Amino acid sequence: MPQQFLELDQLCVEVNGRFILKDISFKLKKGTSLAIIGPSGSGKTILGKVLANRITPTSGIINFSFPSDYKSVFISQQHDFRDSSERSYYQQRFDSNYGQNFPLVEEELLKAATGLPLSEIENIAKQLRMDYLLKRRLIELSNGEGKRLQIARALLQKPEVIIFDSPFIGLDTEARKVLHSIINELITLGSTVVVITTPDEIPEQINYVLKLTGGKIDNMASLREFKDSYKGEEQQPSETFILHDSELYNQLYWNEQEEFKVAVEMKDVTVKYGDKIILDKVNWKICKGECWALIGHNGSGKSTLLSLINGDNPQAYGNDIWLFDKKKGSGESIWELKAKIGYISPELHIFFQRNKSFTEALFVNSAAQSLAAETSSGGITVFDSIASGFNDQVGSSGKISSWQTKQVHLWMEILKLSSFKTMRLSQLSLGIQRLVLLGRALVKNPQLLILDEPCQGLDKMQIKQFVSVVNEICTTFNKTLIYVSHYKEDIPSCVKNYLELEDGKVKQVVS
Description:
Oligomer: single chain
Shape: globular
């Protein structure tokens, strides 16, 4: 009979006078698996950290029953390998001069696999279909590849308890299937597994599903019982935000913009680092008002392609690239180009300076396994984060005009962020942070929107709201859009054109 592993009784976690978790009570036996679901900001990640023994609750009781050499691993939603180098910056991944600053993937895994043979590392790498990455440097990895490294590193520690926080985020369809099979196998072999996930991504071997709402347990049931009840929830209609039916629509003020016919044109664009070709003779033309989806597996070259447009990759100047009817490198500065582009990406989110001082930012990042980020009283506010879109700074807004201030307030209302106005970005859930970054991208009325996996961390209702707003913006204001997602259902209906990359080459164009 499975032994009692832990018990929570009336557990509460309070941060800065606000309850993140309240009156949490349940028991978990050794070898039992649990999925934690709930809306963004409901306390899922904090509960995961409590279960991993990373956070001491404010009140209530938590009893662990395990030996002193017990090992738990918490795999966070975001990965960040900046600590692997003394010097790092946002565009460093695309700089051919980064050289030896970052270790190899193989070296990072060796550190995690203390005492294990190299064959063990190779087996885990093959399981996660990342064996081809072993000789790559950490800084070269795509967002999805970094997620796989993060999971491999955790598995090599051979923990008794493993807690996955949104592990499927950033992975392509095939990688998600592989990870599902690995989690199911861990459960079958008797590991105690907790997965913070969405209702649509619960591994089939999970025993129980716990739903959080507003920091409290809404329901806890077996997987079968949950599936039966969830079918009813799925049939309920959900509210979709329509911008042009809102009073806010007429209050939006857009600056006059210069005319252009072609937003982006690439001719035989090639990017390589040493002998490795990342993009191979890519041709792509995006006319004004067109909405495109850029798709492809993890590591196919999508982020590199976008970096050429967004001014983050110096190899753009060695290629035949036209932006807004002008050849790249013909006189416009990077900042003049960025002023015309609204941009979101997982990498930007990770590198976004959440605090006013860089030292504070490093402190928050280094303490990601604790409550440091949630309890930090310093840092940039939601208002300043959105306002920083006017000058394209990463975190600092600088001075803005009265009409710009009004636009920030309008976008906070549109995205339902007004209640978070004075809160620090680091105190919010990652889903709310992503909505803040959307506001930052939209506030300056960009001529081109580049949204790279923008729905990561959002719950189902937030995704519908997000996609609805993007769709309204593009159709109402004739915006040009490049949208990246591994989920077809998250792509706005305004998207009629598709470019698919495979191993750095254009696999197909649907226009």
